[in-house]
Amino acid sequence: MAATVDQEKCAGCGEVLNAPADPHVRVPCPACGSTARVIEVSITDRLEFHESVGFKQKRPGYKKPIAEGVSGDEFFRKESKWVKKERLIERQANHYRENVTDPVTGEVIHHCDEPLDQHTGHGSAKPKRIV
What we know:
Elements: E1 2-10, E2 16-17, E3 37-44, E4 52-57, E5 67-76, E6 81-90, E7 95-101, E8 108-115
Antiparallel strand pairs: 1-2, 1-3, 4-5, 5-6, 6-7, 7-8
């Protein structure tokens, strides 16, 4: 957020004044002689919206969803920026696909397209630590 002083005006007549070098000294208005002031300040900020949508396809008799996916914005902590992520997991077709791109440059940050049973060592599929 940025705040800037736009103008200093006389509160009596509205004359635009040049701010003195010493803010503790208030020179009377040359037009009306008033020492009351109106200070106009602008505050600016930036607001961003990010969205993502996901789905899960379930069937009776199957413990996990037979298909699930997500598409949209995600914050990439490693590089501290927002990226576009698309992920599709099809358990019946034994397929995993994930694509992560930088929305500004279009650069592909990560791409994975492989059989689901070979997609190991990620997330909950990491080997358990023996203590």
